[in-house]
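Schema walk-through. Below, the input block comes first and the output block second. Nothing else is stored per chain. Lengths vary across the set, and this one has 1140 residues.
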Amino acid sequence: MFAILLRNSSAAEVEWHFGNIYALPETPQVIPLPANISTYDATTLDFFISADYEIRLFGDPVVMHGADDPITSVDVKVDLVHEEAVVLGNEHVVPDFVDGLALGDALGIELTSTFGEWDITAVRTSANLDIALQVPQFHLVSGQTRRLPILLKQTGPLPDLHELPITLSLVNRNSLDRNSTDIQVHLNITQLPSLTSLSRDQLYSLPALRQTYFTPHPSLSLLLPPLNVSAPNTLPILALHGAGVPLQSPFWPKALPRQERSWIVIPGGGSAWGYDWRGPSARDSFSALAALRRRLGGDEDAGAVVIGHSNGGQGAFYMASRYPDIFKAAMPAAAYQSAPLYVPNTYSHGGHFVDPSLEMILKASLVGGDNDVFFGNLVRSKVRVIHGGSDTNVPAYHSRTAVQVVKSWNREADIELLEVPGRDHWWDEVFTDPKRAEVLSRLVKEPVNNDIALKNFTMTVMWPHESGSMGGWRVLAVEVPGRLARVRVNNNSVISTTNVQMLSYTPLKGSTAPTSLLIDSQNVEIGETFVTYMFEKDDEGMWKPSSKTAPPSQTGPISRILVSNQPITIVAPKGDDACFSAAKRLSWVLYTYLSLDSRIVADAEALAELHAEADMQGSVIVLSQGSAWNEYGREVLRRQPSEFRFGTSGGSAAGEFELDGRRRFDERGTGLMFMHGSNHLFMHGTDADGLERVLRAFPVRTGTPNPEWTVIGKEAEVKSLGGILGAGYKEIKAYEKNLPQHRLDLPWPEGKDGIMSAQLAYMSNRAYVFQPYMWNISNPEPVELDGRHYRTNIIPLNAFLSGPAAGGRFGPGTGIDKHGERAAWEAPRSVSYDWYDEVCPEERRKYLDCGELRAKMGLIESDRGLANTTREMLEGISKALLEIDEPCVTLTGDHVFTFSAFSNRVLSTWDLLQHSPILTKFSWSPLVRGIVARNMHLFGDVSRWDDLSSRPRTTQTTDIPGLLALHLRRGDFIEHCDNLNHWASVWGGWNSFSGYRDRFPLTLAQAANMTYEERLPYYLPHCLPTVEEVVYRLHIVRREWELGGRDGERKLKRAYLLTNAEPEFKKELRERLMADGWEHVAMTSDLLIEQPEVEVDLAADMMIGEYAEVFVGNGFSSLTANINLLRMARKVHMDSIRFL
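--- output ---
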């Protein structure tokens, strides 16, 4: 990389430009001169260069140069740009013409805007040619290089020409008159006679043919035709070149043995180095094969044979092990198994600083490229591995152990090592030696050993979007991103899986359609016959046929943004120079290193496209820095919320952001990259320096750790990976579906189902099976930040609460007999899920489908949910359970209690719950009580703690006198309140007791008959109030409460805010409340919490809300509802329960 600065400049933020470390064909970088350069006096610019010596590129200096010290040579070429213009490059994409017809429909013309914004308005060629040219909308920003895509359509053969004349019409957006400018282009073309007219010798000496196609940008590959072009074709060969071998070089085609009846396809992979035949390079390879198949016709599912040398050899391993049903045979030569084994980073500088757990998250993003992990996928294929016995570049042990690993998966696997003693990394006869050429010839004729193919096998997958099928089976989604998924197949009917959420099966030719399958010991019946069968786990982990026709959203490393079905769109905020500069540099490196096309647009333009088309097509990179937010990005996140939120305090100079509303990053120089959905990458900096930091971390080359999200701090400058503040992976399901207020199956404190499920088990005289609290149900892995656990995902329920719902005793006389009446015995104590697994193995369990059970009992669904009360559901289901003799019962299907059961219908259960041990014996865990005890000085008299913690729940009392607790939900509610208005929701559940003093001002019917705009004034004050509205509301509540007492017995002096609000909001609110007469104002962030207690701080908030003299909640929140349920169980004065 390099930077250009004015000498003695005081600029705090430096723009680093990507260099051309691979010495690829030159693409100019147009760099604006500093704005304050003198036009009168001589100005000195300093040129700073970061030049790495990379052993994989330049070789071991001892071996290559006979020297111990590495020497790096750097070429620098500088020219001045004097005028606005569009100049032609040299790297055009042009097909060869055979018998007058083009080998492909893609043309590409390389263009660079030296200055100015240019649009291509028309393209044309000579009128006397039977050719039609079409171009899409195409825009060049100042300093950008792109390849203009032109669709070539022929209505007749081309005459005997050696140049194709093309005229481009351009308009400069900066020009006042917007007159059109023409550029004349003459593309050199090669014309060849019909291949069938050539002799065998002529075909043998024929240079490689050039074919073109769109990937989606114009791309080029080479073809070597078979020597017998008239005979039926055997399988094509995909030949992958080694690192640093340009497609234009005749070296690689000449090294390949020509085949009798097989075409050889030589893809470019994007460039001489490409992406190690993964990602965009793999896309180019598949596109090249598809282009040939379209031209030849025939069976698209016939497959291919893949070969390659060095980096191309590991590419052959990659293709064959990730797509074993496509590449039925492989012949890798001089291949390394994986980058860590080839060029280990054992001595990397960042390894001295990075947290081990965080390092594992970073490494997981690279495992998808480590072939040795996936060698087991080769057991159904024919593989012949070539290696020189004296290879000084890639030692022969790479191939030797590759064969051993495959044989370890299946001793009968058809893999052999063809080691050639005394040979180095390359010799001219690697593939053309008669013995090895004959081996390859046999592979294209008989690629599969059917005896092996029918036996048992195990398929390993890291990222589903990077893997195809094996034996017809394909993993479409994993349960835990960042961990390996495996599918074990036994005779194609008994399947076992690890870390698989969704999979498909496409019976191979000759196979019979299945009628049933045994997946993870579960019998899955298949009714209809399909080409492809889809299977998915439900919420209870049960496999079922799926009606989905496509896999869910992708998950995986950021590098997946490089594979796009349209030119990559880079969106920068209008007028933000730092973001537009970053966009141009990113566009340059994508084009130069990988031949990827990208367009740069302002956020307003992208927003207009989004509104017009609903979704942006192809990969989209959203740039932002500081407080000037990208409006397009804001709209994308409004439509589908993310764990990350920006400028939540209304915008600040620091451009801060939050993770999940709990972890704030506001230090200058901090950068963030995260994938959103399948096709959006957000790159944000708290300032321009932070954006520079993530720009340098962009994975334009393999080997760069790139989890699904990464936060990078300033210390990365000196500590490399040790400066990463956080990284991880997001689950597949949409984020808003995982918001607590949308989940019925979460246990306490956020979910609604925990207490009701425990009550159902109690009324059924059964032990309730409680599960640990999971912040993220799909992913058990913790999130690492700053070298510590930010949040342990799986937390034992007893860390939150005690009592019967968490395994505590019910007490004598609490049993329930067969008739549902109280009995003398003690009710069965709740047990953990792990214990249930032990005492109730699969064969002892009786499964009941909740939906079927409700239907059988006549619990009917209406337009707004269940027509029955929740009590009828509770009593009906418990009665059904009492009649079952089996000791172990598992309720499956959808939730036991549907969402509508937690509307005001849930109040019908109050008479049952208020006398139930589930509530009367409920208590918080010692860990939670310890937090409250340590912080009693914030909200009351410390000496009252012992009295508070030991008082029976049924005693009506004021526990923390003088304290008003307020639940002020922000964070995700910033978007969720808008959704509530759209849905015309009202308060429900435990927030809708008739005795409450406060009610939501609209009934359900009134809200439904109003427009969104008409409802807005009613929703915001109650759901997302301003500082002024909060201060005024608490003032009124305090006054009414104190006036309701006698002789000054009620005095509210202190306020405690259960809140995830932004720092600026909290600061202003605290100041305004103190000015309004509150003696002390404390908040969640003021609690003194030790490390083991971080996981249960939300429960401590709930306990404070429960015991406060007055509690003010958010009527739309389930957390507020649960606090109110506990307060009602303690028989507090109903006037002490208020709402915003």
